[in-house]
Amino acid sequence: MTDPRNFYAEVGGAPVFDKLVSRFYEEVARDDVLLPLYPEQDLGPAEVRLRMFLEQYWGGPRTYSDQRGHPRLRMRHHPFKIGPIERDAWLRCMRIAVDEAGFDDAHRDQIWEYMTYAAASMQNSDF
Ligand code: HEM
């Protein structure tokens, strides 16, 4: 398994993360569970934040922390009720994005495993 610090470069860097996150937000924009959670009408800024975070986590530029400080993602998700339905909706959108990003099988499995783990850890409600 790739060290997450090398993943970004190995898969092709910025264009790949761009494609991944923009495809994810295309799905969010038409998801009846997720869309109402977003405080801003314009999903553009949220897309930029998720892209910067994922780039940083996987060994790319550290712009997320430069702009947003420590991620504290559980805390930042606290205002939104995230139960099994929201978690599964998020993973449905992400599955499409991951499948279409053009990863080889090993990198796809690695990032997918992370996404399922991260989505479960963001859950803050049992219903
Ligand atoms: C922000 C929903 C899981 C990363 C947000 C926001 C919402 C949201 C509504 C606010 C949008 C904004 O930035 O203005 C959800 C739901 C999830 C989920 C329903 C279901 C499990 C995740 C996961 C990750 C993640 C698994 C990381 C792998 C982020 C990041 C931000 C964010 C980086 C921006 C934080 C900031 O700097 O303010 N999410 N999220 N989210 N989410 Fe999630």
UniProtKB/TrEMBL annotation:
Top-level lineage group: Bacteria
Pfam families: Bac_globin (PF01152)
Keywords: Heme, Iron, Metal-binding, Transport
Keyword Nucleus tagged: no
Record-linked InterPro entries: GlbO/GLB3-like, Globin-like_sf, Globin/Proto, Hemoglobin_trunc
Gene Ontology terms for molecular function: heme binding; metal ion binding; oxygen binding; oxygen carrier activity
Sequence similarity: Belongs to the truncated hemoglobin family. Group II subfamily.
PANTHER family: TWO-ON-TWO HEMOGLOBIN-3
Protein name: Oxygen-binding heme protein
Organism from which the protein derives: Pseudonocardia hydrocarbonoxydans
Phylogenetic classification of the source organism: Bacteria, Bacillati, Actinomycetota, Actinomycetes, Pseudonocardiales
Gene giving rise to this polypeptide: glbN
